[in-house]
Small ribosomal subunit biogenesis GTPase RsgA (Zooshikella harenae), 353 residues
Amino acid sequence: MFINHLTLGWKPFFQQQLTLDELPSTVAARVTAIHRSHIQVLTPEKTFSIDTALCAKLQPLAVGDWLLFDATELHDNARPLRRLSRLSLIARKTAGEQVGVQPIVSNVDTLFIVSSCNQDFNISRLERYLVLALEAQVTPIIVLTKSDQCTTIDDFVAQASKLHPNLIVEVCDARDLNQLQGLQAWCKPGQTIALVGSSGVGKSTLINSLCHQQVSTQSIREDDAKGRHTTTARTLYVMDSGGLLIDTPGMRELQLLSSEEGVQNVFADVEALITNCRFNNCTHENEPGCSVQQALTANQLDRRRWKNYQKLLKEQRRNAETLAQQHQRNRQLGKLYRKIKQEKQSRKNINDE
Ligand SMILES: Nc1nc2c(ncn2[C@@H]2O[C@H](COP(=O)(O)OP(=O)(O)OP(=O)(O)O)[C@@H](O)[C@H]2O)c(=O)[nH]1
Ligand SMILES: [Zn+2]
């Protein structure tokens, strides 16, 4: 397929950031992968990699960013002149003494929020991803996979659709390209898509179907700082339809932030303890026959861990839906949607001027 700047996602928004002098003398390259030691970029003609140190002033970078290079310097370890402003940015909060924001992917048009029609389906998680997409100024599409594995999908679709009146929900068997026609509207040349969703919901399967290439064969190996070999999935794919699909380890790890199963998995022993308490509604504070208190006293359960479990559980419960909360959030989502539409319109107006 013919690749030019437009098919790589170049838009008037980026073009208008170039000065008249820069127009003939520079070339923009899109960041396709970020590794510890180097950053990979792509122009219509070539791909090359630059040492991370050369981008120190431009950090933090995200996959999908556009970097500007001197047109005569398009080779490995060329120094980028600057990074162009982003149309959208998906970032995550970093933990630590100071809460920071780590960019993950940028200049994405559409986020496929993938969930499967089985026990993985979790409305609070979908909602968390939805807010993420809207915050990032990216159009969210809910993709419900494994439709072949359930007898009726109507309930899943109804629940997902209720998250917002304008929300698009697509249902498919991710292995079957014929069932992915509904997604093609967002996969046109020049469009950039990112995927989120829990492990095992079918993200790689979707990529394989849409890109007709095996994800596993795209892996590259690199040495990390300690000389260990790590396998890093390649991150930007050209779909058969001409669109671009970003699949970075960073996006895949986003799921860790929102995983209810995580609490159950990590604290399985604590949850087992709780089932042994004498009273079903034990608050584990001072009731007789509380096996949590017994385990704490006997030093069989770490107090820090118990506190952390309670904290995560509280956070998880806060996310749980009540009708009133959902209504309130829908109104907030509505406001966000309107804001995004207005901003997009004003950007369009600027571009059209
Ligand atoms: N029957 C059926 N199986 C599916 C479908 N989508 C994915 N699978 C299967 O589910 C399993 C997991 O799919 P993956 O595509 O690896 O899931 P993933 O989201 O990429 O998982 P991670 O790489 O862990 O993030 C594989 O065995 C797929 O063949 C579907 O729509 N129908
Ligand atoms: Zn108890």
